[in-house]
Amino acid sequence: MNEINFKLLKQIHQLQPVVRTKVIGVGSYFPKQRVTSDDIMQDIGSEQKYGLRHDWMSREMGILERRMVSDDQRPSQLAIEAAKNALESCPDIDLDLIDAVIFCGIERDRPEPATAHIIQRALGLNASHVFDVANACFGFFDGLKLASSLIESGAIKYALIVTGEVTTKMSRVVAKQLKKGLPLAEAKHLWGMLSVGDAGGAMIVGPAKDGHSGFMKFHQKSKSQYSGLCHYNWKPNGEVEAHMDMGKIVARGLQLNKRIYREALNELGWDHVDWALAHQTGKVAFEHAVALHGLDKRKIVKTYPKFGNITTATLPLGFQKLIDSGNLKSGDKVGGLFAGSGLVAGQFGYVA
Question: Which CATH code, of 2.60.40.2660, 3.40.50.300, 3.40.50.720, 3.40.47.10, is assigned to 21-205?
Fold first, then answer.
């Protein structure tokens, strides 16, 4: 009897429609101040002090400029503006049905309360699930995956995943330290910290009504033995203790991404993707994503030349650019390949 009941329950479960999570709205926000890489390197005196040409970052990394916040701007302020833009992109959504607000930025407004509560209050939402997720540049991926799990389990209807990155506050302090003059061996581990840019990003997700579109799979792996390759911490005197072993972290990240990509495609049963979104620390990472996906460069959303490494905001901005381009068609397969220090890498498959 128990065996019969088990088989019956299994058959009933298989007949139930699969709930998938779909992107309902996207939004981004950028501070007004633009700062070029050449100006940063010139101000440091990179050529005189360290033998690096002033156009090294723009030429080698491909990062031409980035947006920078003012000293008094907080992560929630960028996140709130991005969330407003996301809400405007889906005006028909019932705000009372947004039952999760997840903030995923690297920096928070303060240790307590969660920055997500500050954002919810400013937006006038009334979600029951309100919390922060932190995982370096990978935070938005984790937030999106958690939101999808809540939706697909039936626990919530809609979720707002949001970030506000103010990492140039750290990079400006690093630039001042470099400007004073440091031993070359120490300086080499700080250049990558100058590649970041500030941005806000937001996505609203909910159940796909057709049962065929939305996120098909999230797949990720972590290699915590490489956690020392990239880190920063604020000192009591306001300076930054930072380290980025650019060569090693890029190499390890590329190896892990390659493995993740193959495994994810196998799990999805796909032999290709039509469009790709990727974490972008600069030209090398972008060109690797192009080669890995085997796509024309125009099929991979590019953000790094004008915005630098906008860390967690890269994912929502990539989605927004892809949607706004008007080129994304119903049924198109979108692959997302993202990474963060720790080391962590992940791939998602999404059907438009």
Answer: 3.40.47.10
